[in-house]
Amino acid sequence: MKRVAVVILNYNGKKFLEEFLPTVIANTDAELADIVVADNASTDGSMEFMRERFPDIKLIDNGSNGGFATGYNIALRQIEAEYFVLLNSDIEVAPHWIEPVVELMDADPQIAACQPKILSYYEKNKFEYAGASGGFIDRYGYPFCRGRVFQNLEEDKGQYDDICEVFWATGACLFVRADLYLKHGGLDDAFFAHMEEIDFCWRMKNLGYKIYCCPLSKVYHIGGGTLPKSSARKTYLNFRNNLSLLFKNLPRNRVFRVIAYRILLDWVAAVKFLCGGSLADFWAVTRAHFAFYKRIPAIRKEREKLNNQPVSMMYQRNIVFENFLKGKKLFSDLDPEQFTHA
Fold first, then answer.
1. Is 226's pLDDT higher than 80?
2. Over pLDDT 90: what percentage of the chain?
3. Percent of the chain with pLDDT over 70
């Protein structure tokens, strides 16, 4: 058994495997890590391509498309390693991208998960949306990153190169302790895709573990490889899963107040979509809310299994107001003293 398993979940991503897998192979120490491709019932010939072009790479056929969460859960239960690396297929990795993260996690057993610095593949001097240099959420569940606040992507000038604790590490390139992942159920299957990594990180924090970003490692991400950013399906998943995330993980004394406030803000966003001519996104928010309400009994049962408590690195102000009303566009504009317990 090698210490690290780099696992690429694929769904109709043959073009990404063809473009990026050779770099992953070239920049991954074969004595340290195995590379595995797990396929979610692709119909674009991905599996045939892999068998022909990369016969030495282990393949796992998941048999169906259960989304990001279930796809990884099925695959990782079949792999033995000390560390799993969940790696998107549309990522180019830099040389020595694994070693710094493993060294950091080896040095502190309380780090459950970690991410590298995520830069844009097309603009390599800029941070990429999905993770940048470490993820955070505000008190109402809105996610943002060091280097990315809403749609504002900063230029990477080394301003976020320090190794630091964060709230969540991106699923685009997620290093996680295999024993913790398997012991605590992995990603939540009900999320399907989007925000499942935030949920996992929050659950780890509720158990007393830490989440880190290690910018000594860097990768370059295209983003939107499966669902484009403008997809109404993505809008639906983000709004539904964000409410589920909050209801599932917040401490009892905050959960109902925060959910009520988020519902109000979500409908403000829905009206904004409608006024902007995006009926599909308005309908996606509507469907997301009804799907969440339907799942409340099941999520309540999940809450009962968790040790919900105040956790570190949650931003105690409303990032929506900070960004759109106060003009705070950069992570460095935010008050560092507000990153406290929930």
1. no
2. 94
3. 98
- Of the pLDDT bands very low, low, confident and very high (cuts 50, 70, 90), residue 307 is confident
Work out the angle at residue 201's Cα, subtended by the Cα atoms of residues 164 and 139, and round it to the nearest 5 degrees. 80
Distance between CA 145 and CA 135 in Å, rounded? 4
Please tell me the distance from the alpha carbon of residue 274 to that of residue 280, in angstroms, as a whole number: 8
Read off the DSSP letter of residue 31: T
Ranges of H-type helices in 93-172 = 99-107
> Which tens digit of pLDDT belongs to each residue from 71-96?
999 999 999 999 999 999 999 999 99
Distance CA 328, CA 324 (A): 7
CB-CB contact of 244 with 295 (8 Å): yes
Residue 38 and residue 10 in contact, taking contact as beta carbons nearer than 8 Å: yes
Torsional sign, CA 160, 164, 170, 174: positive
Is the overall model pTM greater than 0.85, yes or no? yes
- Tell me which residue of 178, 179, 175, 218 sits closest to 197, measured CA to CA: 175
**Share in percent of the chain as helix, strand, coil (round to 5):** 40, 20, 35
Considering just the CA atoms, what is the radius of gyration of the chain in Å? 19
Residue 45 CB burial class (10 angstroms; 0-12, 13-18, ≥19): exposed
